[in-house]
Design a protein that fits this description.
The chain has about 240 residues and is of the alpha+beta class. About 35% of the residues lie in helices and about 25% in strands. It has helices at about 1-40, 180, 195-200, 205-235; strands at about 50-55, 60-65, 70-80, 85-95, 100-105, 115-120, 125-130, 135. The strands form 2 sheets. Strands 3, 4, 6, 7 and 8 form a 5-stranded antiparallel beta sheet that branches. Strands 1-2-5 form a 3-stranded antiparallel beta sheet, with no helix packed on it.
Length: about 240
C-alpha cells in the first residue's frame, strides 16, 4: 500500500507539471496572438493611399485612410522636383475607418507632376506613402485652341488735309528792302521801240550830239539865208 501511494503521488506531480507546462505554452501562444492582432489593428502605412483627381476645372489631391482603429494621423503633402521638396501643399489630420476616410487637398496640379505624401501617427507610423504620387498626363482644364482672327481689310490711308491759309494776325508784312524790291536784271521788261534813247540818260545817251548837230544846222541855215539876201540886194542895186 505504501508503494502504491508513492506511485500515485509521483504520477500526480508529473501530471500537474505537464499541465502547467501546457498552460504556459497556451498562454504564451495567446499572448503572441493578441500581440499580432494588436499590431494588425494598429495604424499602418499600408492603410493610406493617395490619388490626383479633378474637381471640375480644378485639380485636387485626395488621401484615404482605412485604419479600422481610427488612430489620428497627420498627413502632409509636398510638391517634388528632382527628389527635393519644392513647396508644402498642405497638412491635415485624418481619423481612419474600416470603410475609409478621405481628406482633400486643393492643388491645381500640372500633368506628370510628382508629390510626396508623409503620414505620421505616433507611435505607429512616421513615413511616406510609397511610391510618390504622379499626376495624370492630362490637365483638368483643357486648353481651348485659340481662334485665328481673320485679317481685316487694309484701311486706306487718308490724304493729307489741305493746308489752311495763314490767319491774319494784324501784323503788317515787313517792307522789302531796296535790294529785294528792285526787279532782277534778267527779268526786267524790254523798253518800247523808239523810246529807249528818250528814257535813258547818262554816258550811253545821244541827246547831246543830236542837239549839237541841230544847232549847227540852224547856224549854217541862218548864214546861208543871210548871204543869200545880201547877194540878192546887191544884184538889185546894180
Amino acid at each position: 500500500m505504501a508503494v502504491l501511494s508513492v506511485s500515485r503521488r509521483t504520477a500526480s506531480r508529473r501530471t500537474v507539471g505537464r499541465s502547467v507546462r501546457i498552460l504556459g505554452v497556451v498562454s504564451a501562444s495567446a499572448a503572441l496572438a493578441l500581440g499580432a492582432a494588436g499590431n494588425a489593428l494598429a495604424c499602418n502605412i499600408n492603410e493610406f493611399s493617395a490619388e490626383a483627381k479633378c474637381d471640375g476645372d480644378k485639380g485636387v489631391i485626395t488621401v484615404t485612410d482605412v485604419d479600422p482603429a481610427g488612430i489620428p494621423a497627420t498627413v502632409t503633402v509636398y510638391l517634388e522636383n528632382n527628389g527635393a521638396d519644392v513647396k508644402k501643399v498642405g497638412e491635415q489630420v485624418v481619423k481612419g475607418s474600416r470603410e475609409g476616410t478621405t481628406i482633400t487637398f486643393a492643388e491645381n496640379w500640372k500633368p506628370n507632376a510628382e508629390y510626396r505624401i508623409h503620414v505620421k501617427a505616433t507611435p505607429y507610423v512616421d513615413e511616406d506613402i510609397k511610391p510618390n504620387l504622379v499626376t495624370p498626363a492630362t490637365a483638368c482644364k483643357k486648353e481651348e485652341p485659340s481662334a485665328t482672327p481673320s485679317t481685316p481689310p487694309a484701311t486706306p490711308t487718308p490724304s493729307a488735309s489741305p493746308s489752311k491759309p495763314a490767319e491774319d494776325t494784324g501784323t503788317p508784312a515787313p517792307t522789302p528792302s531796296e535790294s529785294e524790291s528792285s526787279t532782277p536784271a534778267g527779268n526786267a521788261p524790254a523798253p518800247a521801240a523808239g523810246d529807249s534813247n528818250l528814257a535813258e540818260t547818262g554816258a550811253d545817251s545821244n541827246t547831246g550830239i543830236i542837239a549839237g548837230i541841230a544847232a549847227a544846222l540852224v547856224v549854217v541855215g541862218g548864214g546861208a539865208v543871210f548871204f543869200g539876201m545880201r547877194r540878192r540886194g546887191a544884184n538889185s542895186d546894180s
